[in-house]
Amino acid sequence: MNRGKKYETISFLSDFGTTDEFVGVVHSVINSIAPFAKVIDVTHGIPHYDIRSGGLALARSAQYLSPGVVLAVIDPGVGTQRRAVAVEVGGGESVLVGPDNGLLAPTVALVGGADRAVSLTETNYQLPAPGAMNAGRDIFGPAAAHIASGVDLSELGDSVEVSSLVPGLMPVSSRESDGLHAEVLWVDQYGNAQVNLDPAELEIKENEVNHFEIKTSGLTRIAKKVKTFEELGAGELGLIIDEYGLVAIVIARGSAAEEMKINTGNQVIISFAENSSTQPVPVVLKQLDEKNEGDL
Description:
Rossmann fold; alpha+beta; seven-stranded mixed beta sheet
């Protein structure tokens, strides 16, 4: 058997949720094969079957993950002819394991491309399965554990051309006559809506308060460009550079996604508001009833 590099960390992302036993079972399978490996749960809250959201979440996380094995399972094609793959990146610093459906592609691109890849076809490194519906438990989890234990990728299956890996579809913003056409990439649990805009794409007037018009399919609002939430009044709409360096639509102590009626995949048009006398429309925040104030 060819021996490869050993890894101490397995970072795990999926759409399994936490209601059923799926995540715990995969943890246990990994532990039985590689008891030394530390499993980091990145998230299991990706919307079911949402490959793009999972791919973007993995890409956002990639630069902060410990070198090691990355196990990603969002697999609407489970049981079909789609390939199960392991992809080595960064000169062997990390290996990504998951379905070849575009889920891994944004991260592979972000870290400079794939060094090599294999199709996970060697059944000696899989669990015997009564059915084909749980590849996370039977194929991907065991593969991640064996790779962490030092099994070389070449032992796990046939080599595949890295150019044949399924690409991820990443939306691109564009500048049109009516403004910047962007797409909502992600809405976090606070309702902040990240869009696919680099801050440099915004027209900023130095030493002035900059206001921008934001249009959705049914709403138009004015937002102020700010550096921190502190610069916004309660319920005031803003544009901010988020923790990943992209533009986000936000509301102080409120949900911008709810106010703008937007979600992942929706289009927004952002343009400089020349007439900044148009005031932002504040959101009315719910106040606690006096009788309930002590219930917190």
